[in-house]
Amino acid sequence: MKPALLCSLTVLLASVAVPATALSEGPLYTVVEGYKVDANTMQGFRTWRSAACDRCHGPNQEGLVGPSLIERLKVLTPEEFKTTVLGGRMAKGMPSFGENTKVTEHIDQLYAYLKGRSDGAITRAKVVEIEQ
């Protein structure tokens, strides 16, 4: 690969992050500068805030009484995530959010936001929407 092309590719990858596994289906999330996100991922952040998940998982998703979601989303599949959030894990203190319409309607966006944090693409908990 030519050095100029390699340099251009590196700059592009540094400014927009998407998970490699999602490229064939479209990106799960889009991030610019580590904290500017697409509208769907922004909705995931809003869902995180409205459900007050930070009470147990910490304001930066690094864990408090609940586990670090930064670490857990490295191993949870989207299906396992949905099962846990919507069904709860009462034995471990995780309540069910299956009756919370804000969460149920935006579970995929919530997953995208938290997966972006876990992947390291979203570098801080508070995000803003990418200006169009």
What does this structure look like?
- This protein has 132 residues and is α+β, with helices and mostly antiparallel strands.
- Helices cover 46% and strands 6% of the residues.
- The protein contains 7 helices and 4 strands, in the order αβββααααααβ.
- It has helices at 3-15, 39-50, 54-57, 69-72, 78-87, 101-105, 107-119, and strands at 16-17, 31-32, 36-37, 128-129.
- A hairpin with a 3-residue loop joins β2 (31-32) and β3 (36-37).
- α2 crosses α7.
- The relative contact order is 0.21.
Oligomeric state, counting identical vs distinct chains: single chain
Structural class: alpha+beta
- State the end-to-end distance: 32 Å
Largest sheet: 4 strands, mixed
Roughly what fraction of the amino acids lie in strands?
Answer: 5-15%
Counted by DSSP, the helix tally is 7
> Which series of helices and strands comes N to C?
HEEEHHHHHHE
Secondary structure: helix percent: 40-55%
Provide the residue-averaged pLDDT. Answer: 85
What gyration radius follows from the Cα positions, in whole Å? 16 Å
User: Which outline best applies?
Assistant: globular
How many runs of DSSP E, i.e. beta strands? 4
Uncertain spans: 1-24
The order of strands across the largest sheet is 1-2-3-4
What are the SSEs and their pairings?
Layout lengths: L2 H13 E2 L13 E2 L3 E2 L1 H12 L3 H4 L11 H4 L5 H10 L13 H5 L1 H13 L8 E2 L3
Parallel strand pairs: 3-4
Antiparallel strand pairs: 1-2, 2-3
Helix pairs in contact: 2-7
